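Open question from group meeting: does this chain pack into something compact, or does most of it stay loose? Before anyone orders reagents, we agreed to write out a predicted structure and look at it together. Recording both the input and the output here so the notebook holds the full record.
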Amino acid sequence: MTTNETFKVAQPSFAVLRWLTNPGRHVPAHIRDVLLGELFASTGVIVAAVLSTSVVNVAALALHGGRIFGYLMLIDLSIGALRLLVIHRLFTVRKTGRPTPTNFHLITSIAWSGMLGAIGFFAMSSNIPPLQIIATANVIAAAGGTPRFYPAPRLALLMFSLVILPFLAATFVASDHFLRVLGLLTPIYYLASITMIARLQKLAVAFLQASHDSKQQARLDPLTGLLNRHGLNEVLRDHSLGEVPRMILFYLDLDGFKQVNDRHGHLVGDRLLQMVAERLASATRGADVSARVGGDEFVVIAPGMPPEDAEGFAGRLIRAIEEPYWLEEAGEARIGVSIGYACAPEDSTTLAGLYRQADTALYGVKTSVKGTTRRYGVAA
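Structure tokens returned:
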């Protein structure tokens, strides 16, 4: 599943649809997810498209009266009804959080393009000038709208082809030879559409990447590369204990860092903090979350860890951080670390509560025996 701002977007389940919606290898995975969601952004356009083709079919029935346009009207109404069902489902998704009808949306969009191409073909080959004018205007409007599918260039070009190629074929079988001028213009339409789709996608990818980078910078500590306090708060806010039924939050405070920082300067202190972050990364598990939340304060969230494993895990963190550091500017340096922790769901049923309780436990360690660890609510 991928996440849009307001609803979840399901990946297409059919291989051909996944190929059609693939924006290209140059697009990062996190941007692909957003682009897929953009295919659902223009629900108003779907309504307008359903109405426009219905109007053309009514005009065709009135001007031509042939059975073929009666059949096209029935097909048009069926596809239109299905596309409106897509819109209804999207509103339901926004309320319930269920996955989007991605396959349904893509298939009905492609079918609509094919049906519009069929209308254009029979209207242009009817040799009825008013109907030809209406069909030309409708096809040009529809073809001009296909670049809105820029998140999926292959899909956009397929829909453009389904609309324009039958219309092009009809201009060469129509009795009015001047209509072939429209056929000769088709390559220009193709080139313009391809250029526009590529340009729109390039701009969208650049914007989304810049937005992603900005969000990453806002939630990461620039010195250590760990989450900062804002990033940790996002983790605390976005996760729920219903999703992670057991976890432990460790609150770490370095002992002796201030003396190293005061003696050798901030550049040495900064390098020491970077080395501490590296050791945290080596001592924690892949699913654990580490953050720097203050000058020399760190937090580690360990999901799935039972309380009986907490002391051993905290001891491993202490041993890793207490190992001597070799700093080229200052030689060997030694620091320690004090750790307070709280367990879910035993100590708290909210992650924010765990954060406060681990901080309280850390305060108890700092005022008694530094360089040790303590669980919230457990006396020294």
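Observations to bring back to the group:
DSSP finds 13 helices and nine strands in the chain.
The first strand starts at residue 2 and ends at 3.
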